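Example 4.3 (complexes with small molecules)
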Amino acid sequence: MSDRVPVLNAPAPELLARLTEIVGRANAIVDPDTQATYLREWRERYVGRTPIVLRPQSTDEVASILALANAARVGVVPQGGNTGLVGGQIPSGSGREIVLSLTRLNRIRGVDKPTSSMTVEAGVTLATARAAAEANGRLFPLSLPSEGTCSIGGNLATNAGGIGVLAHGNARQLTLGIEAVLADGRIWNGLKALRKDNTGYDLRDLLIGSEGTLGIITAATLKLVPRPREVATAFVALPSLDAVLSLFELASDRGGASLTAFEFLSQRSLAFVIRHVAGARLPFDGENPWYVLLDISGHADNGGAPSIAEAILASAVDSGIAKDAIVAQSLSQSAKLWHLRESASEAQKFEGGSIKHDVSVPVGSIPEFIARADALIETLCPGARPVAFGHFGDGNVHYNISQPPGMDRAQFLAKWEEVSDAVHALVAGMDGSISAEHGIGQMKRTSLCRAKSAVELDMMRAIKTALDPNGILNPGKLL
Ligand SMILES: Cc1cc2nc3c(=O)[nH]c(=O)nc-3n(C[C@H](O)[C@H](O)[C@H](O)COP(=O)(O)OP(=O)(O)OC[C@H]3O[C@@H](n4cnc5c(N)ncnc54)[C@H](O)[C@@H]3O)c2cc1C
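Answer. The structure with flavin-adenine dinucleotide bound is encoded below.
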C-alpha cells in the first residue's frame, strides 16, 4: 500500500465564518493570546499554530464542523484536557489546521445503577466522572495523576492506563459503548451498555486508542464496578529490582484479585519528589534502592484487607525480600503515600531536561530491562540520571532520564532521538512495546514504523483510508 499523504488546505475566510456561526463567536477563538493554552502542551515540547480554536457544545455541532472541514479538505485536531504526553492534541506549526476543543461537551447524560454503567460526554473530566460514579455508590476505576484536567474523550482516544489497570484494565476494558462523529460528519451512535455483543467488527475498540485519527468521540458509556469498602495501602522498601519482582509474585499469590495496585519507584525518583514537592517525606528512615506502593482492596468492612496486607509484608520482611514496610493507618496517610508516587513526573521537571520513555516489557523482564537500559544510558550520555518508576504490575516502566547536573539543557535534549532509538531497540528486542499507555502522537511516529511489521502498518493505513479518505482527522499524528 502506498504511503499517501493527503493534501490539505488552509481554511478560507468564508469557511472560518461558517464554522464561527456553528459555535458562536464566543466559542471561536482567534485571538493569539487566548489561543495560547490550546497550542502548547504540558511538557512544552510541542507548540503549534492554528487560525481558529472551535469549542462546540453538542454532538450535532461537532458533526456540522466536520462535514464542512471534510468538504473543504481542512485538517482538524481534536483536543480534550490537553494533558497528552506525545503531542497528539497539538496542531502542526503550519497554521492550517483547526483545533476542535471538546471541553464544552461536559454533561453526565446518566448513571444506570442496575447495569452498573454511566454515560458521559467526551469533555467531562476524569475526576468529574469518578465523582459521579462515587455519588451513585460505584467506582469508575480509571485513575491518572492528570485526572483533574484530562477528559473522558482524551482517555478513550489514548486508551489511557494509570494505576487501576492491574485490577480493572485500561480505558478500553472500561468502555461499553461510544458515540462518535466520523470524518464526513456522520454521527455513529454506539452507546450500548451491553456486556456481550458479538456482531462483527468491534468498531468501539477500533476508535478507542485511535488518537483522534479515525473519528471524534463525543460520548461514552462507561463500565462501573462496586466500590471497595476498605483499601489497605502499603509502602515497602526493597534492596533490588529482583526483590520487587519477588514481592509482586508474593502479593499476587496472597492477595489474588484483592491486589488492586502495585507501583514502583527508584530511590532517585523518590529523592526528587522529597526534594521538590512541598510536604513530601519518606515514611521511614534511610535510603533504599527501590520502593513499592501497593493496595489491597476488600468488599467487606471487616479488616480483611489490612490483614492480607500485613500478612504479605510480614512474609516479605521475614524472607528478606523487603527491608522495611508500613501499612497506612488512615486515609490521610494513604493519600500522602500515593502523593509520593503521583508526584514523580512533576518532580523531575525541577532537575533540568529529561528524556522520557513510556515502555512495557513482560513483568518478569523488568529487572533485566532496567539494568541493560542503565548501562546503555551511561555509554550514550555519561553522568545522565535514569529515573525509573511506574506501573510495575502491568510491566509498564516510565524510564525517564534526567540530564547530568550542570550540563546544558538544550545540548542534553538534542540527544533525545539517539537515546530513545537505543531504548526502543532494547525494548523491541525484549518483546516489549514502545508505548505502553501514552500513545504515538507526533512523538513516536518514526519509532512506530520500526516497531510495527509492514503487514501491521498496511492494515492500519487501510483502516485510516477507509474511515478518513481525505485525511482530515488529526493529520501528521500516529501514522
Ligand atoms: C501529570 C500527568 C500524569 C499522567 N499520567 C498518566 C497515566 O498514568 N496513564 C496514562 O495513560 N496517561 C497519563 N498521562 C497522559 C494523559 O493524561 C492521558 O493521555 C489522557 O488520557 C489524555 O486526556 P486529555 O483529555 O488530556 O487528552 P488530550 O491531551 O487533549 O488529547 C490526547 C489525544 O487524544 C485525542 N483526543 C482528545 N479528545 C478526543 C476526542 N474527544 N475524540 C477523539 N480524539 C480525542 C487528541 O487529538 C490527542 O491525540 C498523564 C499526563 C500528565 C500530565
